[in-house]
Amino acid sequence: MTTRNPCILCVGICCMDVIQVCDVYPEEDSDIRSKHGRWQRGGNPSNNCTIFAQMGMKCEFMGSLSDSAMSTVLLEDFKKRNISTKNCVIHRDCETPLSSVLLSLKNGTRTIVHSNPNLPEITFSDFARCNLAEYTWIHFEPRNPPETRRMMESVRKWNEKVAEEERITISLELEKPGKHPVDVAELADIVFISRIYAETELRATDKRSAVALMRQRVEKP
Questions:
Q1: Residues 87 and 63 sit within 8 Å (Cβ to Cβ)
Q2: Taking the CA of residue 191 as centre, how many other CA atoms within 13 Å lie in the half-sphere pointing to its CB?
Q3: Rounded distance, CA 125 to CA 139, Å?
Q4: Is 36 helix (H, G, I), strand (E, B) or coil?
Q5: Which fold has domain 14-45+60-119?
Q6: Tell me: the pLDDT tens digits for 22-76?
Q7: What is the third-level CATH fold of 121-220?
Q8: Is 1's pLDDT higher than 60?
Q9: Taking the model in full, what pTM does it have?
Q10: Judging by DSSP bridges, how do beta strands 36-42 and 89-91 pair with one another?
Q11: Structural domain boundaries in the chain
């Protein structure tokens, strides 16, 4: 039996979040002052890594990054938190994705305006450079579903040829209706579903029905 140093790999997007906390959601063409504002590294897989690092777990983020000054700030934050980015792909002359987030204290809503003018999504060829022997868990955000499927299939093939204790747990998030296809979930061991995805894509009315409907969609007869 081999002993591995468990590492979780999160594959997807990293962006800069600019967050404004407001008493109420602003009216169009208005000028208001927020309660407070901040900027921080964002993107679901990137944020997952932050949580894992806070829990003392070894983790790595893999995604596309630009060579901009803003991306340098993101990389410095990863480094400060001991989150590896060794397999990230750096693209020249591209902009860093940016999310403007408005939080309403009155209604508890979160409104996000996201921009990504020209930064390519991660590809299977990029992912294929990873040494799968280093990971015990890989989490995917399916921003480019056909490429994500190929990545997940490659991990499943890896699991078929290694000993049970060396197999990798595969997880997937389904957040955006119409953009994250349900069928990719058949390749995952664990699937995380957002509320809006469950309501819109699965037509679920509660958590239990969401699980049941997901099983119906992905389980083979």
A1: no
A2: 27
A3: 17
A4: strand
A5: UDP-N-acetylmuramoyl-L-alanine:D-glutamate ligase (3.40.1190)
A6: 999 999 999 999 999 999 999 999 999 999 999 999 999 999 999 999 999 999 9
A7: Rossmann fold (3.40.50)
A8: no
A9: 0.92
A10: unpaired
A11: 14-45+60-119, 121-220
